[in-house]
């Protein structure tokens, strides 16, 4: 086979792979959305048909969203909060199920759905070793015996941000980035699949991130 034929095949392969790299993620995302839609919609289809004797595609999903809103509305008052606390105490005691329930609950609270205190700021730190950078969150501030400001920084795991490491760092061990806590959390939970433009613009290594003894 001549070199011109080899070049033509190489060009053809590269263009195909480029097209595949573009189409495949879109197809996978659409497939996931369709799969979730069919599951949620299908769960309520027989119930709606039984009571109303009619149905159209998407009605099950719409009813689910309305029910979720109504549950949130009920739980937002005093008696609803009492019920929520009672149910929560029961669910955390159910073997096996409680592990999934606790993980999902912690992730939702971390994302800021609850009214609990959220992270102060998203930053970059050198972790797990020099030369490697990780997204992290400032959780609090303190001072050492010399009056120098120190930062409590949480380095979350991915895709489960509820498991990670807490570090005590100086200012020069932290690199400030123009990334919101929400965008940083989306990136971590999706293992980088959801990657906002402002996260892509991060320049690592510009800060003085060399560890110093406290």
Main sheet properties: 5 strands, antiparallel
CATH class of the domain at 121-190: Mainly Beta
Which class best fits the helix and strand makeup? alpha+beta
Please report the number of helical segments: 6
Mean of all residue-level pLDDT scores: 76
Q: What coarse outline follows from CA principal-axis ratios?
A: flat
Q: Strand order, biggest sheet?
A: 4-3-2-1-5
Could you name the CATH topology of the domain at 121-190? SH3 type barrels
CATH architecture of the domain at 121-190: Roll
Share of residues in strands? 15-25%
Terminal-residue CA separation: 66 Å
Total number of β-strand segments?
5
Give Rg in angstroms. 24 Å
Fraction of residues in H or I helices: 40-55%
Any low-confidence stretches, pLDDT <50, length ≥5? 113-117, 207-214
Give the SSE order as H and E letters.
HHHHEEEEEHH
* Oligomer designation: single chain
Keywords: Membrane, Transmembrane, Transmembrane helix
Protein name: Transporter
Pfam families: DUF502 (PF04367)
Transmembrane segments: 20-40, 52-75
């Amino acid at each position: 086979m001549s070199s011109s034929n080899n070049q033509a095949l190489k060009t053809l392969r590269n263009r195909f792979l480029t097209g595949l790299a573009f189409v495949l993620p879109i197809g996978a995302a659409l497939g996931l959305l369709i799969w979730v839609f069919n599951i949620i919609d299908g769960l309520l289809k027989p119930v709606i048909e039984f009571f109303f004797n009619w149905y159209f595609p998407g009605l099950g999903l719409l009813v689910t969203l309305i029910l979720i809103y109504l549950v949130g509305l009920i739980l937002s008052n005093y008696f609803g909060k009492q019920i929520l606390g009672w149910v929560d105490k029961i669910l955390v005691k159910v073997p096996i199920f409680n592990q999934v329930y606790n993980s999902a609950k912690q992730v939702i609270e971390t994302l800021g759905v609850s009214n609990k205190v959220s992270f102060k700021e998203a930053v970059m730190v050198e972790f797990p070793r020099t030369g490697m950078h990780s997204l992290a969150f400032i959780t609090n501030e303190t001072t050492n015996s010399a009056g120098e400001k120190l930062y409590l920084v949480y380095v979350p795991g991915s895709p489960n941000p509820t498991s990670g490491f807490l570090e005590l760092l100086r200012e020069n061990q932290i690199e400030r980035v123009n990334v919101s806590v929400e965008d940083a959390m989306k990136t971590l939970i999706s293992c980088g699949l959801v990657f906002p433009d402002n996260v892509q613009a991060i320049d690592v290594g510009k800060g003085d991130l060399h560890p110093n003894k406290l």
